[in-house]
Amino acid sequence: MARRTKQEADETRVTLLDAAEQVFLERGVARASLDEVARVAGCTRGAVHWHFRDKLGLFLALDERLLLLQDAVCCRLDICPDRPVLPAMAETLCAALEELENNPRRRRLLTIMLQRCEYVAEMAPALERRREADGRMRARLAELFTAAAARGELAACWRPERAALFLFALVNGFLHEWLRGDADFTLSGEVCASVRGFLGACAAAPAGAEGPPRC
Amino acid sequence: MARRTKQEADETRVTLLDAAEQVFLERGVARASLDEVARVAGCTRGAVHWHFRDKLGLFLALDERLLLLQDAVCCRLDICPDRPVLPAMAETLCAALEELENNPRRRRLLTIMLQRCEYVAEMAPALERRREADGRMRARLAELFTAAAARGELAACWRPERAALFLFALVNGFLHEWLRGDADFTLSGEVCASVRGFLGACAAAPAGAEGPPRC
DNA sequence: GTAAAGATACCTTCGTGTATGTATATATAG
DNA sequence: CTATATATACATACACGAAGGTATCTTTAC
Asked: Which one of A166, A175, A192 would you mutate to disrupt binding with B, by most B Cβ within 10 Å of its Cβ?
């Protein structure tokens, strides 16, 4: 009813977020009603409005769940002095893809953000956060490619920013297709193979028989 | 006013579609009201409901506009007996990308379908059509890669279906990023270069020094 | 006691569906 | 060639529910 302990209140908040995750996924963000979110969470709209300002606030709180996970991947993309950069990068990315494949919550969150949300004017704050998160990811990838280039581990025909953009678009394209639900491929299979393939292909050839831009 | 001539009625229909294109883009499909669509078109909801069953009907009619354009590209992806397949493919795709870049209507339509629409249960027919259209495109690409392989124009490490999926994901990933609006790249520039680069890279090497799966 | 944590109630706004009104184009009969 | 009938192409009006915001209770921890 009311004034549970602080801990119970936090649990209510989590329950509401879980419910929002489910309802947003099923109905889409725009069509979802706060009342249904509340009912699924086993409480009323009063609780929703207590914990979150409005629907956008609820959505942004959900978005943070995903951002934390995404930035965690970003942090794991680091440079190990004694290992070649690109293969390490491939392993980190593939590990993240496998984690996504096996973590239903993560998949649901990504589905909501990419396919259950119309990024119009009222959702501007959400769009901005997505933009920044993707910007950070691309920047991180570019840093790694730059480091690889500095070490002579990147084929000369690839400029680091280009390679980062290429890889980013490739993975995102796969993700969009995969999230649609009836994909005839898996993240741990075809997608990881493609990522490894690309990073292998744009690695500097040991012997330098460089033809026209083959990559 | 009523019972205009058949031609005038058709013009009204087109005007409504144009209005829907604008309103859906601005407000998103879910939040858009049929009344606003009608007002933008300079008529009332009566006209909307006369020409289209409901909002989904209107949306599907809009979708057809894009499908026609998309399938046109599909058709242009054909096999010319006296030219290598992959370079021809690259040119067709790049031409389509440039057309998209220079055709605002096309861009608006694609933005609506990819970023202003929540594909939930009620939108199932729309989702199905998107799926089929994308399926046709992927199948067409796969056919071309298969033909290239049969002619010995595809590097052995690439299976045709894999190559088609890779290319499809790559382009779609670029498109999603580009449609978001603040892209730091262009379709005619970086994206076309990437498409050409990939198709060049997976072409069979003239001399057969095939190492580990470098592609 | 008081403030946190929600429940309940009320109001308002908006959007849709449908029903009905209406004027005109077009077909058809004579 | 008219006159009439009918289907077409909308406009208008109404009823209805859904959803959100806000204000006001209620309970309970501290």
From this structure: A166
A42–chain B Cβ distance below 8 A for any pair:
no
Q: With contacts defined as CB-CB under 8 Å, which chain A residues touch B59?
A: none
* Distances from the Cα of B154 to the Cα of A11, A21, A99, A166, B132, angstroms: 57, 45, 33, 21, 27
Whole-angstrom distance, CA of residue A105 vs CA of residue B128 = 25
Q: A210 in a domain, yes or no?
A: no
User: Would residue A165 count as lying in a domain?
Assistant: yes
Sign of CA dihedral B110, B116, B120, B124: negative
How many distinct structural domains can be found in chain B?
A: 1
Per residue in A91-147, pLDDT (tens digit) is: 999 999 999 999 999 999 999 999 999 999 989 999 999 999 999 999 999 999 999
* Distance of C1' in D18 from CA in B30, Å: 14
Within-domain flag for A132: yes
Cα–Cα distance, B192 to B95 (Å, whole number): 9
CATH of residue A85? 1.10.357.10
Asked whether residue B124 is domain-assigned, the answer is yes
Cβ of residue B83 closer than 8 Å to a chain A Cβ: no
Q: Name the average pLDDT for chain A.
A: 91
**Is-contact A73 A92, C-beta < 8 A?**
yes
